[in-house]
Amino acid sequence: MSEVHAARRAALRAHCSPGDGTALLISRPANLRYLVGAVPAHAALLLTPGGEDVLVGGGGASRPGAPDDTLRLLAVDGDTDPAATAAVLAARGGAASLAVEEHHLTVARYRAVRAAGGGLPLGDLARAVEHRRLVKDEAEIAALRTAAEITDRALGELLESILVGRTERHLALELERRLVDHGADGAAFPTSVATGANSGTAGHRPTDRRVEEGDFLTVRLGARYRGYRCRIGRTFVIGSRPADWQIELYELVFAAQRAARESLAPGTECREVDRAARAVLDVAGHGDALGPLTGEGVGLEMGEDPRLAPAAMGRLGVRVPVTVEPGVHLPGRGGVRIDDTLVVRPVADGGPELLTITTKELLAL
Where would I find the Creatinase N-terminal domain in this sequence (predicted)? Predict the structure, then answer.
């Protein structure tokens, strides 16, 4: 991957510093991962106008990935801000200005970088790296696909076990352990397990409530593999047969999720995907239950661009991975979530690629 990372850095430099002497300072961890690979927790990347790339990191760090002649590692101690050190290097190297990620730096760090630069003019790199991260290459999608396979496997194994009497917290911990056992770096986000009335609360965090007969069981989890993350959400019923109201609510959310999935296509406005799901719920009187969005981009972070929301701007592009995750939560009674991770593909290539394939049938466990 060193050649891929070097090419990404070169493209960023060509776009943001086209011969005007501007050095680029990248500090946001996910952006560092995209441009360099695995990096120390305390690091910053400097792209100089002359073509040298310097990763400023912790003293115990080794060079990430395979040898790369365009990347130099400069170790600093834990008390030194690597972004400030990078600013010193930029000033000493004769840069005309320094573009930083203002949206990531705190006010204190921004001031430290400005002071370290010794009068070097600072500009805003804005979200230039995030914009380049939006469309994934096939290697990135392969990592997402593996993350989804791990997630499906962990969830499938849990469903084969005895669930009644176990606590939400225990089930969440077991799911995260299974993710790691099957090759994940860890969980993509804190695993959510909600049972019974707890499933009626959006964003519920696991408690010591035990699974009971007749419960809705809503699970949301995802694996992180080589830095890339996915999300799956499924709802089941504990017992021999779902109640009529559970079937009705589940079928409604399933219809909304299917409408949103089917709308995923290159060129589609992001807000149209949200509108497709929301229209189904509106007819049933649950439009307000959807929340602020129907889905979002995924990759090195959860919640990347694009946002599939009512006021979202922009259109979907090819090879953009997104979640589609409508839900209806009835406080004090129960709720349904159905979340999938998909990659936008043209119709000629089969349409949207579904990465999370665990059944969406309402199973009685």
Answer: 8-135
